[in-house]
Specification:
about 325 residues; mainly beta; nine-stranded antiparallel sheet; six-stranded antiparallel sheet; 28 strands
Length: about 325
């Protein structure tokens, strides 16, 4: 395995590669550390299952849909950008103007630094760092975020480590926002399955107000479906969301650690283009800074780690 460095438009690009299979992960540290392309192999050949743009212009024009971004220090929405923590009220900037919410944290297009690289016969590893000292309006809680990308024979693994470098408690939730696609197909050709327990009912600002039992372990066809939904999943050791092609022998598996304070939620979103689907591992539901449901509170000097990943078969 090897790691190469080049440029993609104005950005430095790091590529984790398996030369024997031509599998590759393309990462842009300076643009939120996004994974803008992911190519994995099955017995039928190579499949580019994440593609945020073949040119820099295509990538930049897609950024409003948050492709493959890391959602931190909160995932999805904070209703009206307001929340209270430990007796103090805070107001975040409203970057979702139409719904008047604070959306997806603030690291999604912020520059990360390369923290560590490792190459061996069996894997390539790139770790990125985002160091925050507390300057964002409405969020005065310092942290260090490390994202370790590992490409090996099992596919891609993302390991997130959050270190509280402040003097007080750190309230966070975390998510990843990849869009998956299969060349030549649309959502009408796909079935998705995952061990959900509940779907959240949303208000007119797309924030949860209740939840209802919903079980999709047996799968459902996406033909004609329009989804932008938050699900709680079974708190088993590993939860798998499987996207299966109905036209060819190909499935994409998004796995996430579940259990106590892990990736116990998933957001499934089908954009209007109809040619891709977002499958988002989440540690908490939307608006967790207010509801406090599964909100991670990390003590000063403490760390938290959680993993998710992608494979094909």
């Amino acid at each position: 395995m090897k790691i190469t460095q080049s440029t993609f438009g104005l950005f430095n690009e790091y590529v984790l590669q398996n030369p024997s299979t031509n599998e590759a992960v393309h990462i842009l540290p300076e643009l939120g550390g996004i994974i803008h392309q992911l190519v994995l192999k099955t017995e039928t050949g190579l499949h580019k299952i994440i593609n945020c743009g073949n040119t820099p212009e295509e990538l930049l024009s897609s950024l409003l849909s948050y492709p493959s971004t890391h959602l931190f220090p909160w995932g999805n929405r904070v209703k009206s950008g307001r929340y209270e923590f430990e007796g103090t009220s805070y107001q975040l900037p409203l970057n979702e103007v139409g719904l008047k919410n604070a959306l997806h944290g603030f690291v999604y297009t912020s520059p990360f630094k390369v923290y560590e690289t490792t190459e061996s016969e069996t894997e390539a590893v790139l770790t990125l760092e985002y160091l925050y000292k507390g300057g964002y309006v409405g969020y005065p809680f310092p942290f260090q975020l490390l994202i370790k990308h590992t490409l090996n024979a099992k596919g891609l693994t993302l390991s997130y480590t959050i270190n509280n470098i402040g003097t007080g408690n750190l309230p966070v939730s975390l998510g990843w926002h990849p869009y998956f696609s299969i060349e030549g197909e649309t959502k009408n050709d796909w079935t998705v399955s995952f061990p959900s327990t509940h779907q959240y009912l949303l208000d007119d600002q797309m924030c949860p107000v209740d939840r209802t039992p919903k079980h999709y372990a047996e799968g459902f066809n996406l033909d004609g479906q329009v989804l932008d939904a938050v699900f709680a999943v079974e708190k088993q050791e590993i939860v798998e969301v499987v996207l299966q092609s109905n036209k060819q022998d190909l499935s994409i598996k998004v796995w996430q650690q579940a259990g106590e304070q892990q990736f116990n939620y998933s957001v499934v979103y089908t954009p209007p283009t109809g040619d891709r689907i977002a499958i988002e591992p989440m540690t908490a539901p939307t608006n967790a800074l207010n509801s406090k449901e599964n909100l991670l509170i990390i003590s000063a000097g403490e760390s938290y780690t959680v993993e998710c990943g992608v494979t094909v078969f």
